[in-house]
Amino acid sequence: MQDIRPVNWLRITALGIIWGASFMSTTVALQGTGPLMVVAIRLCLGAALLVSIAYATGHGLPPLRGRTAGRIWISVLALALCSNAIPFALLSWGQQVVASGFAGVCMAAVPLLILPLAHVLVPGERLSLRRLAGLLIGTVGVVVLIGAGAFRSTGDDLELLARLACIGAACGYAVGAILTRLCPAVDLLALAAAVLLVAAVVFTPYALYVEGLPQAMPLKSALALLFLGLFPTGAAQVLLVHVIRDAGPVFMSLVNYQVPVWSVIFGVTLLAEPLPPSLLLAMVLILSGVVLSQLGALSRLFRRG
């Protein structure tokens, strides 16, 4: 059983806020370029930030030689593909076809995909009825928030493939979380920088081939892309790696329940979007699910306090 420290609760809260704000920023960024180039630019900016910080602070990238170097770089490549390049490509294509909320529901299912994988592959991550019930309740909360429209058929000939693409992206994120935990011991900043660097190298040629270079971009789109690269991509990658390595992939997956809530909150407060009537019920379900799934960790946290 992972001993989840208070700092990890702060980290997943910060991740929820950062990724929740990314939806609003992505909408603005898409006014200046296509969805694949948004992802490519995010990855390049995030990689440039983390690689610069890693070398400036003396961490650098993971070693190229040594007993575990080969396993570390195989893990880096797998993480770049499973946690970044492949899910981004699948979601970018799938969301052009499926109902807008379907991808959100798929992301909410990531914790349910991680749970059995962690039970089998990660020491200390045990599948229990309480944990499963908590994650199911949290997933229902997200579905309530997004609404039944997420499952509405668009009538597109490629809809089934697009839905499978979104599900595939969710599976990629789940596998990536497990691989992050199983990666050999390595400096965490170096690992995060290497993952984004490899993801940028892999994804950018694909984006350029499909969409080409963006034309003149409005200032607000450029600023939105800068935010997406520095925070939801660069800073978030560091937080993600720290949480998974320290508290485990199941705990990390709880951020998937926060993101839709924060996205709605930012939309209501900053974009004057209507307040969904289901928000309160959804938040109650999500919080109940988190508490139930992490009851042991919360009990230890309060005993320390």
Question: What does the model show?
Answer:
The protein has about 300 residues and is mainly α. It has one domain (about 5-295). It contains 13 helices and no strands. The chain has helices at about 5-30, 35-55, 70-95, 100-110, 110-120, 130-145, 160-180, 190-210, 220-245, 250, 255-270, 280-295, 295-305. Helix 3 (about 70-95) crosses helix 8 (about 190-210) and helix 11 packs antiparallel against helix 12 (about 280-295). The longest helix has 29 residues, at about 220-245. It is globular, with a radius of gyration of 19 Å. The model has no long low-confidence stretch (mean pLDDT about 90).
Give the topology, please.
Elements: H1 6-29, H2 35-56, H3 69-94, H4 102-108, H5 110-121, H6 129-146, H7 159-182, H8 188-211, H9 219-247, H10 249-252, H11 255-270, H12 279-293, H13 295-304
Helix pairs in contact: 1-9, 1-11, 2-8, 2-9, 3-7, 3-8, 4-7, 5-7, 6-12, 7-9, 8-9, 11-12
